[in-house]
Write a structure and sequence with these properties.
Strand order of the largest sheet: 1-2
Structural class: mainly alpha
Order of helices and strands: EHHHE
Radius of gyration: 24 Å
Shape: elongated
Strand content: under 5%
Largest sheet: 2 strands, antiparallel
Length: 106
C-alpha cells in the first residue's frame, strides 16, 4: 500500500538543531576571527617591541581556531535534540499584551 499522506517515512528519527545550534554559530565566528588573525600574523608586520618578542596575532589566531574547533566538535558529538511534539501553553491572562487564542487541536 502506498503512503499518500505526503509525509516521509522518517518521522521517528530525532531532529537536531543543526546550524541553528548556538555552539555552531559561536564556533564559526571564532574560527573566522582566528583565520583573520593568523593571516595578519603571517602576512602583517610583526612588531616584537610591543609584544615582548611574541607574534601575538598568530598565537591568538591559533588559539581562536582551536577554540572554534572545540565548540564545533562539541556540537557534533553532543547535538541538541529537538522534541517532536511541543505543547505550547495558552497565553497568560495576566499579561498586559493582547491575548492570542490558539485554535483547538484536532
Amino acid at each position: 500500500m502506498t503512503d499518500t499522506s505526503g509525509k516521509s517515512g522518517t518521522t521517528d528519527a530525532p531532529r537536531k538543531a543543526g546550524a541553528f545550534d548556538i555552539r555552531n554559530i559561536i564556533g564559526a565566528l571564532m574560527g573566522i576571527y582566528g583565520v583573520i588573525l593568523v593571516l595578519a600574523g603571517l602576512l602583517g608586520e610583526h612588531e616584537p617591541a610591543k609584544t615582548g618578542g611574541v607574534n601575538a596575532n598568530l598565537w591568538t589566531g591559533l588559539a581562536l581556531i582551536a577554540f572554534a574547533a572545540g565548540f564545533i566538535g562539541w556540537a557534533r558529538w553532543r547535538p541538541v535534540v529537538v522534541p517532536q511534539d511541543v505543547d505550547r501553553p495558552d497565553d497568560d491572562p495576566t499579561r498586559p499584551a493582547p491575548q492570542r487564542k490558539r485554535p483547538p487541536s484536532h
